[in-house]
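#lab-general

N.A. 3:47 PM
ok so I finally got the sequence cleaned up, no stray characters, all 393 residues accounted for. can someone with queue access submit it? mine expired

B.Y. 3:52 PM
send it over

N.A. 3:53 PM
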Amino acid sequence: MTHTPSRMRTIPSSDTRAGHDALRIAIIAPPVVPLPPTTYAGTERIVASLATGLHERGHRVTVFASGDSDLPCEVVPVVPHALWNEGYTGETAIYLEMAVARAWEEIGRFDVVHSHVETEGFLLARHAPIPVVTTLHRRLDINGVADYIDAFPMIPLIAISDSQRRWNPDANWVATVHHGLDFSTTPTSTRSGEYLLVVGRVSPEKGIAEAIELASRTGLRLVVAAKIREPGEHEMFETVVKPAIEAGTVEWRGEIDTVARDRLMAGALTTLMLGGWPEPFGLVAIESMATGTPVIGRRAGGLTEIVDHGVNGFLVDDVQEAEFALSRIATLDRERISSVTRERFSVDRMVEDYETVYRGLVAADPGKGRASASGIRDLERRATVAASAESTA
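B.Y. 4:20 PM
back already:
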């Protein structure tokens, strides 16, 4: 049985949770899709959820993003319209730097800046008169990123999984914050579906070829809802996906909106994430598990921190193991998968984690933005003790 709640949601302008300690927070986002995004987008979904959550807590939030973004807080346009919606297919680095430059111009308005534009915000973090913290959303072991992080040992960084931190253990990691989302409108299903599902991009790291092989071996229908934008994605579609469509193995859905994606997830037997790469987090995994649908994923990267083997899915090393995992997928409790995921990866938990980081940075040294991980953990412990005392009073 599938239950789909109403998609209506009221967003207040503020509340009293931040009280007199409300922060002036700037968030720098990639201006590639409007916020919130309506189709496949990982970083941008998290930024929109975070900005909305902070605003609801009474903080003064300003987001540097595309001008067609629709958020309840202030939006400062970096470009008038989201790049990808305008058909732009080129490199985005210059536009990320534009977003940083726009925030730099207004740095005096804020208590803290939160960058989501990868390494493009590092120089701002080094030289700004206020704390600038960067959440890194991508893998860090390619394109010289790890070396670049080593060149900025003092700037505060946030990882989205402990796995992501492995190549820079001495960097100034002030926290690991797992993603969280608002699942209030996400449908749930307690009954297993009959098809395999892949959601994401048509690229080797997303495990498209492995999913097709698994579908061929088992005779199960494979539904693929994925975007095609980069040249390599078009090439893979032509050489790998299209023949599988013609053979009747793949049911192609293309890039779909969030409503259709959630329904597909709720109706699937399992969501596959079989790509052989160190996924920095795995947003698709928590989206799937929030509906009750378990995940079969590669035992690598952030998935090892999200998928609890034999509880909400299975971690495998190859397609043969994935086939064996399918024989046990029906033993998993979909109702429990959904309820635990919604609590563990809630947007409220994520916003609270980031709020703790912001307050730790500002309290540690508001003029420099330097803070130690231990200092932030101490602040978090004090907040937990205070909350516990309040609940027992």
